[in-house]
Design goal:
Helix 2 packs parallel to helix 4, helix 7 packs parallel to helix 9 and helix 8 packs antiparallel against helix 9. The chain is built from 17 helices and 32 strands. It is an alpha/beta fold. The chain is globular. The longest helix is centred in the N-terminal third of the chain and has 19 residues. The protein folds into 4 domains: 302 residues, Vaccinia Virus protein VP39 (Rossmann fold), CATH 3.40.50.150; 98 residues, no CATH class; 47 residues, no CATH class; 89 residues, no CATH class. It starts with 8 loop residues before the first helix and ends in an 8-residue tail after the last strand.
Length: 595
């Protein structure tokens, strides 16, 4: 796979590992009902003020591999000297960071080298935070789009690339020079599991069709039907024993376990043998999407809405021709596994044929997200003017665009992250989507500029509580969040624990690093952190003296566990004694996990 090299790459390619972990200092909580409050809102929504590189690192203990969706709108690097949110990399904080990390080479860097040095470690940390099924959307314009594509292929994987969307940002062009008019931007989409996409236009569901999950004549095999699968059987609570046979006509099912229905849903996973039409992966996916169901005869069918056909057409209109041409056979084969006789296949072939008949592809706008349904810069600007009563921000993205991108995934729950938060459109969009579909999405917004509180957070407050536009009242979205600033590094320059951050933050970090779960300070015994999966965790630490794990220290252990993980400065217990009693010693600070 081709990779991109630039001056300074060798200094930043692994720099994300060296970024210091800083604690997050809680400043205030906010709820739509109470407004600002000293105590945490504990809603799961967070706004963080600080350098996004360090802020992303601070999220790793709690959120590594847990973020479902990322949207970022990074600096576009237009080369203008005046700093604006999506402009060049001559911001004082970025220049200072490049000088410290890249060193003497910094004098030879072009603005493109600087931009790549800035972006690479941030994208690396975002890739670590993404869930294995996570999706990332990245907005960019002509200045860096080609270079961004290459480093994203390197970081997220070329096979994870889904498509490039083209967004019309303006209803009228802006003359950047005498030869060029700028009306478009690009959105790169990467995802390791393409099945999480629910379509890119969000049409209203219409006619419903159903398909049998069994195809007589296929080879008999077993499939696991997941718990939670819905049922239209006449009895909502029903049990059918292992070995039971269900038959009608030429279709025949045999249970390899008890089938138990409770309140119209399958209570347990159950193995069923039949002549299946679908693979196990597809059966699991359809159950997850709530398309799979037991019929009145206890057969299995799948619901398919007409919107599936519309979404396919929409995809055809929005991906580049080369992508369609390269993937058409793969797409058709995959669809034929599910719907061998479907009109979808016929339409797909016809659509591709019509594209292949076009000789002048420069005149075919097949990847355009036109501004009639996706919003424009003008729409984003009008939204902010309505919320604040005046212009407060340049080039905000419209909620139409971000909401539709976020809704194009199947995720109605989970963490949605924006590490270049700007005016807070992503947080606004998350709250709006939750209100529309009843989802429980959570946002994390990171903004390094001083307006993080006055604009980013203030916008979320206003749309949460509601606001006035002339004589009209806009109903609030009932949001809440906690506001943080970056605190001190957890480790000092000698890699010892930085006691200035406070013992509570240190204990919280140790617990996160061991269990990947939220920390709740116990009130039971000294040095005790908590218990998880029958392992008891202890952090024997004192600010002014060294601690030792010995037999006297064991007298302090009150909580029983199958295993003990104990941190201390030194250990004097015999190795055979520790092995016999399942004691794991971890030396402070050597054995503390670094993220």
């Amino acid at each position: 796979m081709p990779t991109l090299n630039w001056i300074g790459k060798d200094k930043v390619v692994s720099h994300h590992q060296d970024v210091p972990y800083r604690v997050l200092e809680h400043k205030y909580g906010f709820t739509a009902e109470k407004g600002d409050q000293k105590e945490p809102a504990n809603s799961g929504n967070k706004i963080i003020h600080g350098d996004n590189l360090e802020a992303l690192k601070s999220l790793l203990p709690e959120y590594e591999g847990k973020v479902k969706c990322v949207y970022i709108d990074p600096p576009y690097n237009t080369g203008e000297e005046k700093w604006t949110y999506n402009d060049n990399v001559n911001h004082p904080k970025i220049k200072k960071w490049i000088g410290e990390i890249v060193g003497d080479d910094e004098l030879d860097l072009t603005r493109h080298d600087k931009w790549l040095c800035m972006m690479y470690p941030r994208l690396k940390l975002l890739s670590k935070l993404l869930d294995k099924d996570g999706v990332i959307f990245i907005s960019i314009d002509d200045n860096e789009n080609s270079r961004l594509k290459l480093i994203c292929d390197e970081i997220f994987g070329q096979k994870s690339f889904v498509t490039t969307l083209v967004w019309e940002k303006k209803k009228k062009g802006t003359h950047l020079d005498k030869k060029r008019i700028s009306i478009k931007e690009y959105i790169y989409v990467y995802c390791k599991n393409r099945q999480v996409f629910n379509g890119l236009i969000g049409e209203v569901k219409s006619k419903k069709e159903t398909y049998p999950c069994i195809n007589p004549g296929n080879k008999r095999a077993s499939r696991i039907i997941p718990a939670g699968t819905k049922s239209t059987y006449r009895e909502k609570n029903y049990k059918l024993s292992n070995g039971s046979k269900i038959s009608a006509g030429n279709m025949f099912l045999e249970l390899k376990g008890d089938l138990i229905l409770e309140d119209g849903r399958l209570k347990n996973d159950v193995e069923v043998e039949a002549e299946w039409r679908y693979s196990q992966d597809n059966i699991s996916l359809y159950a997850k999407k709530d398309e799979l169901y037991f019929t009145r005869d206890l057969y299995l069918r799948r619901e398919v809405y007409d919107t599936r056909y519309k979404k396919l057409k929409d995809l055809l209109q929005r991906v580049e021709y080369g992508t369609i041409n390269d993937l058409k056979d793969e797409m058709i084969k995959e669809l034929e596994k599910d719907e061998p006789d479907s009109k979808i296949i016929v339409e797909l072939k016809n659509q591709i044929s019509s594209l292949e008949d076009v000789h002048h592809f420069d005149n075919v706008d097949i990847s355009n997200l036109n501004n009639t349904g996706w919003g424009s810069n003008e729409d984003g600007d009008e939204e902010l003017r309505n919320i604040f009563g005046k212009k407060v921000f340049d080039f905000p993205k419209p909620t139409k665009l971000i909401s539709k991108l976020l809704a194009s995934t199947l995720f109605k729950n989970g963490i949605f992250l924006d590490s270049f938060a700007g005016s807070g459109t992503t947080g606004n969009s998350v709250l709006a989507l939750n209100k529309i579909d009843g989802g429980n999405r959570k946002f994390i917004l990171i903004e390094m500029e001083e307006y993080a509180n006055k604009i980013t957070a203030e916008r979320i407050k206003k749309v949460s509580k509601g606001y006035q536009i002339n004589d009209s009242t806009i109903e609030g979205l009932q949001g809440s969040f906690d506001y943080y600033e970056l605190g001190l590094p957890l480790f000092d320059e000698n890699q010892n624990l930085n006691e200035q951050v406070g013992l509570g933050k240190i204990r919280e970090y140790i617990w996160f690093s061991e269990t990947r779960t939220s920390f709740k300070e116990p009130n039971t015994e000294s040095y005790y952190l908590g218990k998880k999966d029958e392992s008891a965790y202890y952090f024997i630490y004192e600010k002014d003296c060294l601690t030792t794990l010995d037999f006297d220290a064991l007298e302090l252990i009150k909580t029983k566990g199958e295993q003990y993980v104990i941190y201390a400065d030194n250990c004097l217990l015999p190795k055979d004694f520790m092995a016999k009693n399942n004691i794991i010693f971890k030396k402070i600070p050597r054995d503390i996990t670094r993220f």
